[in-house]
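hey
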């Protein structure tokens, strides 16, 4: 017992001595830590003061002074921007989300008549008239062609923000006319007005996203327009489901579309204008203000200096239509137009038109079939958004078109006599879902984004209008001739032709398309356009 107590006393004494020794060492350690911390803070403060002084030195200079007086200018602001890092992506995101409302409306009006056409024809007195039903669908495409043809001149004339608001106006009026009409002619007028807004919206959205997004997330933001289109399509299908059982529900479907259109017109009043358009219009001070809203104050001068690389060479003058058809701009216009033409000749819209028949023959309800197609489209678009700024536009395009070629071959085999009827159904249904999925991975979202990147700023809006007009013309003829060709040459040959166009697209992209991932619009322009 005595030994045990002695052991406890000795152990306690050791602990006390250890605590005393530790306390005696604390001031010395605290002094070392304080000196170390002071050095870190001093280095950080010196770096911050260096960046601030460099930035405010540029802030005192106007853009014109920086461009005209290079000998007396301080170090290159682009190098300072590299030290600072990438601009914050959150600043421009809210503006992009507002712009994607136009893509949401585009998808909604594409699908709004799918579930409601039967009840519309019955209530308006043209039930069984296939010509009238076809006009209700195709009139919208005709309006879209007209709207896309003039979209470039509108965007360059009044700016990107006002172009969005002008795009919303015919959609609101057209939806109201369609929702209140008592006859076929009123429906056609409403669909024509809506189509005009549909044609105007996507080109302006592609321009706006490319011009206000930081380069390192431009691909991701560009994919948001495709995702918004998917949500619009799926929304129109779900909202239209009660139309078959509820009398007059189709009118509600048209009224609903006026809400996001009005939201687009109002919210655009608070969004940033494109600095590219402002600078091209000679409003450099306003361009700096908008760059500060979109990128942050530290990145304003570097963005302005970067923008001057291309815009400094181009005189502010009107672009003639003939400039888009030959000369040094012909190459990029040809690439853009061909991409859109191959996108439609891949047969994607024909697959959408024919999918309900294939699913019906397989015993799948139309509601479930439309949901499956919509989910495949949405899933592919989300994956494309994730990969756009990692793999790049070129890789996604080639992989997407190659996947569509394989999918079309699967459908061609399903339509042949090489397989049994049960196998044919599985191959056809699987081929359709695979076509939609692979299309959404690249061939759907990339062409619009890529075109807005490779077109020079001086002709960007008008060249985009020409390329989109090509898109709508090819889209119209594919929809017009698909059923007739299906009857005359059969699905085996037709799907083989579509597969061949997809492989042709792979070859075209490999030989002609430049990778734009992570590059500024000015770097892309300098790489593509011959200097004169």
């Amino acid at each position: 017992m005595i030994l045990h107590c002695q052991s406890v006393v000795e152990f306690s004494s050791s602990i006390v001595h250890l605590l005393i020794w530790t306390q005696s060492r604390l001031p010395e350690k605290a002094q070392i830590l304080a000196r170390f911390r002071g050095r870190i803070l001093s280095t950080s403060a010196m770096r911050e003061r260096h960046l601030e002084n460099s930035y405010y030195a540029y802030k005192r200079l106007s853009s014109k002074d920086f461009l005209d007086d290079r000998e007396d200018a301080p170090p290159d602001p682009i190098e300072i921007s590299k030290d600072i890092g990438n601009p914050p992506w959150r600043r421009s995101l809210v503006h992009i989300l507002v712009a994607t409302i136009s893509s949401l409306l585009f998808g909604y009006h594409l699908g709004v008549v799918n579930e409601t056409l039967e009840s519309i024809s019955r209530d308006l007195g043209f039930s069984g008239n296939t010509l009238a039903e076809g006009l209700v669908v195709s009139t919208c495409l005709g309006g879209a062609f007209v709207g896309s043809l003039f979209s470039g001149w509108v965007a360059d004339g009044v700016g990107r923000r006002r172009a969005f608001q002008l795009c919303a106006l015919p959609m609101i009026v057209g939806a109201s006319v369609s929702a209140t009409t008592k006859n076929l002619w009123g429906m056609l007028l409403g669909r024509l007005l809506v189509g005009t807004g549909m044609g105007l919206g996507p080109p302006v959205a592609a321009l706006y996203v490319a011009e206000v997004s930081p380069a390192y997330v431009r691909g991701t933001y560009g994919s948001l327009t495709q995702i918004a289109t998917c949500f619009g399509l799926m929304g129109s299908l779900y909202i239209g489901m009660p139309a078959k059982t509820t009398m007059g529900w189709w009118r509600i479907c048209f009224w609903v579309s006026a809400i996001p259109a009005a939201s687009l017109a109002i919210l655009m009043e608070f969004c940033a204008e494109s600095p590219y358009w402002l600078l091209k219009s000679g409003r450099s001070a306003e361009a700096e203000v908008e760059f500060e809203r979109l990128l942050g104050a530290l990145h304003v001068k570097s963005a302005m200096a970067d923008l001057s690389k291309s815009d400094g060479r181009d005189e502010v003058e009107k672009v003639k239509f003939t400039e888009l058809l030959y000369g040094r701009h012909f190459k990029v216009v040809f690439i853009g137009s061909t991409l859109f033409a191959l996108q439609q000749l891949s047969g994607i819209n024909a697959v959408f038109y024919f999918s309900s028949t294939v699913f019906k023959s397989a015993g799948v309800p139309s509601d479930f079939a439309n949901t499956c197609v919509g989910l495949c489209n949405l899933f592919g678009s989300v994956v494309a958004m994730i990969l756009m700024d990692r793999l790049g536009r070129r890789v996604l395009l080639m992989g997407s078109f190659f996947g569509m070629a394989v999918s079309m071959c699967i459908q061609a085999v399903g339509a042949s006599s090489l397989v049994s009827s049960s196998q044919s159904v599985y191959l056809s249904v699987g081929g359709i879902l695979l076509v939609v999925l692979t299309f959404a991975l690249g061939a759907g979202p990339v062409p619009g984004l890529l075109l807005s990147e490779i077109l020079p700023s001086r002709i960007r809006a008008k060249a985009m209008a020409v390329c989109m007009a090509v898109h709508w013309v090819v889209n119209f003829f594919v929809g017009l001739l698909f059923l007739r060709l299906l009857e005359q040459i059969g699905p085996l040959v037709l799907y083989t032709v579509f597969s061949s166009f997809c492989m042709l697209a792979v070859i075209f992209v490999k030989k002609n398309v430049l990778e734009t991932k992570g590059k500024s619009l000015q770097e892309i322009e300098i790489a593509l356009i011959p200097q004169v």
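DSSP finds 21 helices and no strands in the chain. Residues 1-81, 312-316 have pLDDT under 50 and may be disordered.
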